[in-house]
Model the fold of this input.
Amino acid sequence: MSQSDTPVLELRNVTKTYSVKQGLLGKSKPLTAISDVSIKLARGEVLGLVGESGCGKSTLANILLGLEAPTSGEVLVDGQTLGGQDRLALARRIQPIFQDPYSSLNPRKNIYDIIALPLRVHGIGDEASRQKSVREILDIVGLPARVMNNYPSQMSGGQRQRVAIARALIMKPEIVICDEPTSALDVSVQSQILNLLNELRQEFGLTYLFISHNLAVIEHLATRVAVMYLGRIVEEASVGGLFDAARHPYTDALLKSVLTPEPELGIPDTHLGMSYPNPIAPPEGCHFHPRCPAASDLCKSKRPEPLFDPNGRIECHLHSP
Amino acid sequence: MTLAPSTNSVDPLLQDIVGPTPGQQLRRRFFGHRGLMIGASVVAVLLVIALLAPVIAPHDPYAQDLLARMKPPVFLGGTWEHILGTDHLGRDYLSRLIYGARVSLLIGFVAALISGTIGTAMGVAAGYFGGRTDAVVTFLINVRLAMPVVLVALAVVAILGGSLQVVIGVLGLLLWDRFAVVMRASTLQVRGREYVSAAQAVGASTPRILLSEIMPNILNNLIVVITLEMAHAILLEATLSFLGLGVQPPTPSWGLMVSEGKNMMLFEPWLVLIPGAVLFVLVLAINLMGDGLRDVTAPENRS
Done:
C-alpha cells in the first residue's frame, strides 16, 4: 500500500438538512442532521466517532457510503470528490458493516449468495472463482466453508456479523464504515468481533471509521476519536489525549457516564440534566449550553468557533484563546 | 495480498447443530396446518375437475332435452341418469356444474393475475421510491377505493356487453387496490432493512434490489392477497352473472345457474341451492387457503 499525504477519506464542511413536515398541513421545517463537519482519515487509521443517539452519526455514515447526498460541502476519497466518482468504483473502495446482523442479511438468501452479491454486481470472476473467493473470505473471518449453504436464520448473532464482515471485505475495500458493529451482540461475542476487525485491519491495511456509543470499544480499537453533539463535531483528539484529558465538557460527561462492573460505585451521574434537545429547534449559542455544567452567558449567545491545535480540534468557549 | 487463515475460530460444534433451512421449516409448517391442507385439497380437487371437465362430465352441458326438464336430483327421488337432476331446458345439472367450475376458476386466476400485476407494480414502486411516486399511487388507490366495484363493473358490462373476456378484464382492472395497499406497506417495511442498504452500498442496480432483495421478502404477503382476490373475483363474477351482466347464457356459470333457477326457487329450491353451495365451498376453501398461508408464512416475517 502506498503511503501519501492525501487523506484516504476527507469530509469538507459537510452539512445535511432534512425538511420535516409538522402535522398534515404544517409547514416543513429544516432539521439539520449534520452541520459543518470536517474530518480527515489517514490511511490505516481508525477514527472513532462517538455521540448520543440521534446526533447524526448514522447520517454521516450514509453520506460516506453514497446512500445520501450532502446538502452542502464535499466528500473526498483520495483527494477526489465523491460526486464525480462512479457509483460502482466508489463501492469498491468503501464498504459498510451495519449494526444489526439480524437485519443486515437477507433472510431469503443463503450465505454464499449474500457474500457473493458484491462480486455478482461488479461482474467479477465466474461462478467457480466466486466460490473460491467466498471460501477464502469465510476462512479469513473464521467461519467454516460449510456455512455457505446455510441461511441467516440458522446462525447466531456473532456468526451473522462475521458474514456481514465477509461481505464487506470480499471486494478488498480500502475504507470500512463500521456503524456500531457490536452493539447488537452479546458482550462475550463483542470482543471476538472487535479482535477480528483489528486483525483484519492490520492484515489488509484497512482504514476504519468506527461509529459507536460504547467508549470502551472506541478506546480499544480507535487511534483518534471525534465526539459529535447535535450534528457538530465538538472535539477531536487522539485516543490517549481524549481519554486522559477530555477538554470539552460534553466529552467529560460521556466519559463519566460509562457503567462499571463495580456495584459500590453505583450508577454514574453525568450531570447532563435535561434530555437531548430537539434538533428541529436547537438551542441558541453553543448547542450544548443547556446541559453544560460550566455554561456562561457567552455560551448562551455566541456559538464557539472551532479551534485547531496540535492536540486536535475543540469547539468550546472554555478553550477559546 | 496474501490471505492468511485467521486465528479466529468458531466453535466447531455450532455447525453440527444448525436448524432446518427456511424452506424446510416452511414445508413443515405448511403440512402441519389443518385449515391450509383442507382448503388446498378442496381447491386442488375442483381444479382437477375443471381441467378434466370433458372427461368427467356425464353429459354435454349444452344438450337440451325438453322431455326431461326439471328432473330432481338423486337424493330427492331422481334417477342416476341425471345425478343432480336437469334444469328448465333439460340440461344435465352436474355437467353444467362441472363446466361452470372452469368459468369460475378461470375468472379467479386471470383476474387475480391481471390485478396482481398492476397492484404489485404500483405498490412496490410507491413503497420503494416514496416521495412523489408514493403520493401519486396513494391518490390512485384512494380514487379506486371510492368507486363501488359492482356498480362500475355493471356500467362497463352494460356498455361493452357481457362476455367472459369483458368480465375478466373489468375485474382484473378493478381489483388491484388491495394488492397495491399491501405491497406498498410491505415494501416500506422491507426497504428500511439494512440488507437493502448493504445492496445499495455495493452498487447494485435498482431492478436487482427490487427483484432479489425486496420481492422475495414480500412474496408471502403477495400470495395471501392473490388467494383473497381470487375468491373476491369469483364471487363478483357470480354476482354479475346473476344480474345478467356477466357471462352470457348458454355458457355454464354458477352465478348464471343461480339466476336461472331463481324463478323456480319456491318449488324446486335445489336449483339454486346446489350451485350456491358449490360456490360457497370454493370460496371458503380459497379463503381457508389464504388464511393458512398467512399463518404459515407469518412467523418468518417476525424473525
In short: The CA atoms of residues 8 and 14 of chain B lie 14 Å apart. Chain B touches chain A at residues 1, 3-10, 12, 14-15, 18-22, 25, 193-195, 197-205, 208, 212-213, 216-217, 300, 303 (CB under 8 Å). Chain B has a mean pLDDT of 84.
